[in-house]
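Structure ticket #2291
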Amino acid sequence: MNRRILVIEDDSVLNKLLCDGLNRAGHSAKGARRWTEAERRLSEESVDLVLLDVSLPDADGLDILPKLAERQPVIILTAYGSVQNAVAAMKRGAAEYLEKPINLDELEVAVARVLEVAALKRDHLFIKSRVEALTPHNLVGSSAAMTELRQRIAALAKSDAPILIRGECGTGKTLAGNLIHAQSARAKRNFVIHDGSAHLGRDFLTALFGAEPDPKAPGSPSRTGLILDAEDGTLFLDAVAEVDAEAQETLLRLLESGLYRRVGAQNDRAVQLRVIAATSRDLESMARAGTFRPALLEKLGGQTVHLPPLRQRKEDIPELAAYFLGHIQISHPVGKHLTQSALDRLLAYDWPGNIRELRNILERAMILSGEGAQIAPEHLVL
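Resolution: structure written out below.
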């Protein structure tokens, strides 16, 4: 498979030799002879692997290795091979270590091995990101509102534009975002969730974009952000109305240019991803009040999905209840069902907590009903 490889080697002859060999092996290799040139290339495009000379004219390879290894695997090249250098390189994040003169056959084997391990790591992240989609919760319901919603999701999945999902708490905004991702061209990459209400101020930016070491705390580590896990995939920003002005400005810049900057960093980084945001708030009112940037609202709100509250599609409650009970009962030895009077009580309720509340009430009813096969009205805590 064709992989993008950057060779950072100051020896022009060796640089060309390595690039030519990698290109013949079916990869797409480019060379850089100085760290400044390599840094510019990396800010403009993503690569799958870096070959890094440990001794560059303008940088020490071991010093820049940790930063590089956070984003893609790195193979260290050096003419000063030793056990100490190898151990130092591996501790700082190198995936492999090769000593000059470089044997092209050995290089090809090392590259294949490193890329295979990187692919396995990506697959692991991908599987973890799909857990949400595989949990017992889906767009269940045969109402006209749900039919229209499925059609809307299928249409938006074909686009790569930002999307704003609107709906009350508990209506399934995260699920809708995940389904858009699962039907899109980015489905084989990660679906990464970042909750705007869980991190405030700089904590939001650090968690999302990462941070450079604190200059006031020598030896403090750099922090990677969730955005690296979302690269080439989908970033789902839940509770986007809760982020502060600084974070809103940073998100707007990301959407407009595809660039972001780590907290404390001086240089921008480029990233390819799709952004889906969700809110239960009235962003238009917030924009008029000056608490949400109108430009960010305009950028996010070009494509919108509205999730109906459960009280507006009560005809779906019998189907939803059967679906949830079927999945909840996987861990229960006794099959249970709702009595008609219990179902009538569910239909009469207005569901301020929507689908999430319905599931929680059914889970509690399973416990309160004991060993019996029926869930009666008295088992429903509404």
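Closing remark: Confidence is low (pLDDT under 50) at residues 132-137.
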